[in-house]
Write a structure and sequence with these properties.
Oligomer: single chain
Largest sheet: 5 strands, mixed
InterPro entries: Homeodomain-like_sf (IPR009057), HTH_AraC (IPR018060), HTH_AraC-typ_CS (IPR018062), PocR_dom (IPR018771)
Protein name: Transcriptional regulator
CATH architecture of the largest domain: 2-Layer Sandwich
Number of domains: 3
Distance between the termini: 35 Å
Order of helices and strands: HHEHHEEEHHEHHHHHHHHHHH
CATH topology of the largest domain: Beta-Lactamase
Number of helices: 17
Organism: Paenibacillus borealis
Pfam families: HTH_18, PocR
Radius of gyration: 25 Å
Number of strands: 5
Helix content: 55-70%
CATH class of the largest domain: Alpha Beta
Strand content: 5-15%
Structural class: alpha+beta
Keywords: DNA-binding, Transcription, Transcription regulation
Amino acid sequence: MMQESLNISKFLDLKKWKRLQDSLATVTKLAILTVDYKGIPVTSHSSCQAFCQNVRKDPELLPFCQKCDSRGGLEAVRLNAPYVYLCHFNIIDIAIPITVDDKYLGAVMAGQVKLSDPENGTDLEQIVSSPNKSSHLLKGNQLKAYYDDIPTMTYEEVVKISNMLFLLCNYIIEEALNKNLLVEMFEKAAGNDEALNLSTILPGYTIKNIESIKKEMTNAIADAYLKNTSSDMSICTNPIFKPAWDYIYNNKSENITLSHMAELCHISPSYFSRLFAKETGENFTTYLARLKVKWAKQLLEVTDMPVSQISNELGFNEPGYFIKIFKKFEEITPALYRKGYRENQGVS
């Protein structure tokens, strides 16, 4: 798989990535764009500032923006870390490298902010400058009103956000690689008339290895989208339940049983059940079902996962049972819930 020409779209579902990119731009207050290794955009801008929109519309200025994106990405690859720099108009930009097997696929470009404490950014490099400085300055002055509206941020805030984006990108690419590995394995097996032989398809792997990888991937997919709020984690404060609590939140894709939770807490199932009901006000089975429906609603809202996949991601035995439980709590099917949510949000 890694010998072929690598394309960023092979590892990122760009449609879904754009939705995540939009959310990140809203939360971080940065403009965000994803580019390939040449600096050519593979997504549209999220929260692009009016100044930068106008600069990129100018055929004489656009190449400088693309050079910034390209060179910033390459410098980030060289450092194997986020690269914070100044664009050709001295605006803060950040390049987050996207690499696979040490091969550079592209970068997530963020920024379009000015420093509120420029004295802390004196070491930042202006990565591209125009040879015709007077013309460049003139065009910039014509957009001064837009330039003055560019938001400000402290240098420390810029660095913290860039590190967060770097960790997030690495995580998503690693998960994509794991999924592609399994896809390749089964495609190879499907093209072979002989019986499935893991020793030839994936040397060193066993069925148990693959099942473990699948379990880890499924949990990772759920965790990548789901949010655990402090109110979720603090509803049951008795420390005796901590092993069970940690297991539930770290294994969202499992069909969790009361007996297993009691075993983790080193108490009998009957005592676990009585104590849990006293702490939370409802029995364990009802509470867990309600929690998984809450997670299901989040997945329905922020992903395009089919209902059957969401059922699997959250450890239900089969989609029909998941739909029945969801309807019990929400009085509507998962599909109709998603449709109604997106209509309310203005999302097609």
